[in-house]
Amino acid sequence: MTDSVDVIMDLWRDEAPELADDLWPVAIVGRVQRLSRILDRALKAFYAEHGLEVWEFDVLTTLRRSGPPYELTPGALLDAAMITSSTVTNRIDRMESKGLVERIRDTDDRRSVRVRLTEHGAEVVDRIFRLHLANEARLLPDYSPADYEHLVGELRRLLEHLDDHLDRDRATSAPAAKKPR
């Protein structure tokens, strides 16, 4: 059985046979990238059926799993959700206009704001989350529990490696701290 990544690798072997032994990363990275695109499209379509964007569902589930009172600071939301800092204010505004979240002033520090899941937002996430799980299960092949465990373990190893690798890259490329005089 071959897939589109195998075809790409075969084309490279034909065009640059001297690179044949160096193509092995494409077998992994190419498939992970392709899986990511396919899953992104499928999830985007699923959320659109429920009137949500992918990032909105991510914010809703992040707030819901944070536990009562289902609120986080924008910074904590950034750390836990898959959104960027440049978009957080605009996105919270959009969710607030839909009645999914509300901004709450911190009683101890009036400058600080927390983003709280509204009752409507909780109803939406609770209704859709079970459907989301069924949709994700539908997208996956019919593997045995042992095969799923093995796949999860290998994906975890890959993710930990990449997280560690990227953390090291950021640490080594960060500007050196100036010594006090």
TrEMBL record:
Pfam families: MarR. Residues 25-160 form the HTH marR-type domain. SMART domains: HTH_MARR. One of its GO terms (molecular function) is DNA binding. InterPro entries: HTH_MarR-typ, Tscrpt_reg_MarR-type_CS, WH-like_DNA-bd_sf, WH_DNA-bd_sf. Keywords: DNA-binding, Transcription, Transcription regulation. This is DNA-binding MarR family transcriptional regulator. It comes from Saccharopolyspora antimicrobica. The lineage of its organism: Bacteria, Bacillati, Actinomycetota, Actinomycetes, Pseudonocardiales.
